[in-house]
Write a structure and sequence with these properties.
The chain has 377 residues and is α/β, with parallel strands linked by helices. 25% of the residues lie in helices and 27% in strands. It folds into two domains: 75 residues, Urease, subunit C, domain 1; 287 residues, TIM Barrel, CATH 3.20.20. The chain has ten helices and 21 strands.
Length: 377
């Protein structure tokens, strides 16, 4: 159904416009002027491109590792839609092969049924480094085998991202994954600089939650962090919640990397969209929420209660970034990383009508996915 929205402001991904009509039909933007036979609807606030999150473990009380079902994925999607996420990759952390298979089945079914916002899947592990495992269970960390390759190389999973430690996966395997349309991210790794560079040359294109769970940069050993910041081509996911990365370190990466190569991620866990006192279990270990911080009872940070709208606002308030650039880090840049910038990530004629309405405090009041209103405050 055709409809025209007129917001106080529209950010198309490049510039802000005042009172620009946006006409949508069949899930896409068809014009930026009022179509004569359509009565425009006035909405108060700023209309911006929908946010894309490539690392979403859970939300709304649901966790993919615990419940590999379409219902779980849709619960996660609804929770994050409240905060402007219009596209996401359900993320499975390190687990056994049967869990990986059933999670892949659920994602494939979600895609075939058109579940709102589901773009593919992110397998964060299990081929990681034990010294940098974080809360990933050591019992499931292992060398890659044909069983995992069969899952990663499925053709019904949409966008496929795999996080791995390059010291534990050969460059030949990385090349094979890339040839099967897998986007290889490096993370949870203690690899030295040369090993990381070799993985990049083999086709790896991303780094998972930069700075966290990876070999640090030193003056004589650049480590994974140094290789990530040095690379002109690779994308870096960044958790801007005030806990995972110091503001100064975040700014160093943003200033050093080419524009467009740092994107926001949430690494979100089940409490997103839940009450302040929500806690949960992860592989039998209780994870405690303390305000906007999650810690396992053993002390490690255990993902986030961060949402994309808050990440955008944190980029402005904590890092001093221009609002438009913070929005691009949540929309255009992840769209570029997953190769969907021709479809989403900006508001342009012909693109999906994935849009978010923000109020004067930059809080989400409406979320549209494919032109459909999926959340309204």
């Amino acid at each position: 159904m055709k409809q025209t929205l007129i917001a106080d402001q529209v950010f198309d991904g490049e510039v802000f416009h005042q009172n620009l009509p946006v006409t949508i039909d069949d899930g896409h933007i068809i014009a930026f002027d009022t179509v004569a036979d359509i009565k425009p609807v006035r909405v108060n606030g700023t209309l911006v491109p929908g946010f894309i999150d490539i690392q979403v473990n859970g939300g709304g009380g649901a966790l993919l590792n615990a419940d590999r079902s379409v219902k779980c994925i849709e619960t996660i999607g609804r929770a994050h839609a409240q905060f402007g996420t219009t596209g996401f990759l359900p993320t499975l952390i390190t687990d056994d092969i049967d869990v990986m298979r059933t999670a892949a089945d659920a994602v494939a079914q979600s895609l075939s049924e058109g579940s709102d916002g589901v773009l593919g899947v992110h397998f964060e592990g299990p081929h990681l480094s034990v010294p940098k495992k974080g809360v990933h269970p050591q019992s499931h960390i292992r060398r890659i085998s044909d069983a995992e390759l069969d899952v990663f190389c499925r053709k019904d999973l949409g966008v496929k991202v795999v996080t791995l430690a390059p010291e534990n996966v050969s460059v030949e395997v990385i090349k094979a994954l890339v040839a099967e349309d897998v986007r290889v991210c490096l993370g949870h790794s203690n690899a030295d600089y040369d090993t990381v560079v070799a993985a990049l040359k083999a086709g790896a294109t991303g780094f998972t939650h930069l700075y966290n769970a990876m070999s640090p940069m030193g003056s004589r050993e650049p480590g994974m962090v140094g290789a990530a910041i040095e690379s002109r081509d690779a994308w870096c996911g960044l958790i801007v919640d005030g806990h995972h990365v110091h503001a100064a370190a975040a700014k160093v990466a943003i200033y050093a990397k080419p524009k467009g190569k740092v994107m926001l991620v949430t690494d979100a866990m089940p409490p997103v969209g839940m009450a302040q006192d929500a806690s949960f279990e992860l592989f039998g270990t209780k994870v405690i929420r303390d305000g906007d911080r999650l810690n396992a009872i053993t002390g490690e940070l255990a993902g986030c209660v961060l949402d994309m709208a808050q990440a955008v606002n944190n980029c402005v308030s904590m890092l001093g970034l221009e609002f438009g650039e913070a929005l691009r880090m949540a929309s255009l840049y992840p769209a570029l990383f997953i190769g969907q910038d021709s479809v989403r990530g900006t508001l342009k004629v012909g693109k999906k009508a994935d849009m978010v309405l923000l109020d004067s405090q930059r809080q989400v009041t409406r979320t549209y996915i494919g032109g459909k209103l999926v959340y309204q405050i």
